[in-house]
Structures are given as structure tokens and as C-alpha cells.
Specification:
Layout lengths: L1 H20 L1 H15 L1 H26 L6 H54 L6 E2 L7 H7 L8 E2 L1 H46 L1
Antiparallel strand pairs: 1-2
Helix pairs in contact: 1-4, 1-6, 2-4, 3-4
Length: about 200
């Protein structure tokens, strides 16, 4: 079943990416994309940013004004400050509520599409052999373990295939990280001699 083999591998890759990148980072990226296609929320976010900028400007002026020497100006700024703060907090609460609803929905969809599928597939295809082992190549206990829990003896079960895919994805990810770290590490020593030569010129 090549299609199922590929589906299991892609699900493992997706789960690993979610765990590596982080749910909060993914939600923020999706939220920014959602703002682009939602005029109402985009307008709400722009209004919130405008109110925040105006509020911070009034607050800065208020802090710079003496309540004793410039009481009239200070009282006016104080009224504007309180009014702007009330409007900003009300709009921010509405915006945050929309963001929280979006995060919950995105979290449910993300979990269903990754971890949910990962748990459901063995339940549906638990008796399906992913592929068959060569006959008489492995002892009975090895065949039993590889076919666990419900696949026919002598075959690879979906659980075993999931485990192999998880290990392969982790190894591939570690290899990429090691290669990147090695590439970055090899660049830094090359810059040191130039820096040391520049220091010697300054000293001379």
C-alpha cells in the first residue's frame, strides 16, 4: 500500500514540524494570514494600533507635564488619557477575544490533521500489512514484534511503520541541524584571522 506508507510518513513529518516550530508560532503566522483575507479584522487591528499609538503619545505628554505648574494642561491631558485608555482597552479586549477564538479553532484543526490522524490511522488500518517481510529471513519473535499489534504475522504493521518513520524523521532533522551548525562553525574561524590582522595593524 504505497499511498498509506506515504501518508504515514507525511503525518510524522507534519507532527515533527509542529513540535519543532511550536504551536504559538504557527498560530501567529496563520493569524497574520487570516488578517489579510478578513477586512473586518484587519480594520479592527489597524484601529487598535492607531489607538495604542495615540494613547502612548498622550501618556508621554502627560508624564512630561507638571500637575502643579501646568494644572489646566495636565487636567486636559488626563481626561484625554483616561478616555483613550478606555477606548483602547475595550477594542483590545474585542481583538484579543477574536484572536483567542482563532487560536482555539486553529489548534483543534492542527491537532486533528496531525496527532489526531496519527492516532486514528493505526485504529483503522491496524490489520493491514504495510508490506511483507521476506519469508524465513527473521525469527518468529522478530516477525511478531514487527507485526504488532494486529497485522498478519510476517508483515510490517502500521505501528511499526510509524515508529520507523518517526526515527527516520528525527535522524534526518538531527543531520540537517548538525550540517547547519557545522557550516556556521566553519565560517567563524575564517573571520578570526582577519580580525587579528586588523588589530595588529592598529597596534603598529
Amino acid at each position: 500500500m504505497p499511498s498509506l506508507l506515504l501518508v504515514v510518513l507525511l503525518v510524522e513529518v507534519a507532527v515533527h514540524l509542529v513540535n519543532t516550530i511550536g504551536a504559538a508560532t504557527i498560530n501567529n503566522a496563520l493569524w497574520n494570514l487570516f488578517l489579510l483575507v478578513s477586512p473586518e479584522l484587519r480594520k479592527q487591528a489597524a484601529e487598535k494600533n492607531t489607538l495604542q499609538t495615540e494613547y502612548l503619545a498622550i501618556r508621554r505628554d502627560l508624564n512630561a507635564t507638571s500637575s502643579q505648574d501646568q494644572f489646566a494642561k495636565w487636567a486636559k491631558l488626563r481626561r484625554q488619557h483616561d478616555k483613550q485608555l478606555e477606548k483602547f482597552e475595550k477594542l483590545k479586549a474585542t481583538h484579543d477575544a477574536s484572536k483567542a477564538t482563532f487560536d482555539r479553532t486553529a489548534g483543534i484543526i492542527r491537532w486533528t490533521a496531525t496527532s489526531g490522524v496519527k492516532f486514528i490511522l493505526p485504529w483503522i488500518y491496524g490489520k493491514e500489512p504495510m508490506f511483507w517481510l521476506p519469508s524465513s529471513w527473521f525469527p518468529y519473535y522478530v516477525e511478531w514484534v514487527l507485526s504488532f499489534p494486529r497485522a498478519p504475522l510476517g508483515s510490517i504493521s502500521i505501528v511499526s511503520w510509524q515508529t520507523a518513520c518517526t526515527a527516520a524523521v528525527l535522524l534526518f532533522s538531527d543531520a540537517i541541524q548538525a550540517a547547519i551548525a557545522s557550516a556556521l562553525g566553519s565560517r567563524s574561524p575564517q573571520k578570526q584571522p582577519a580580525t587579528e590582522a586588523a588589530k595588529k595593524k592598529k597596534n603598529t
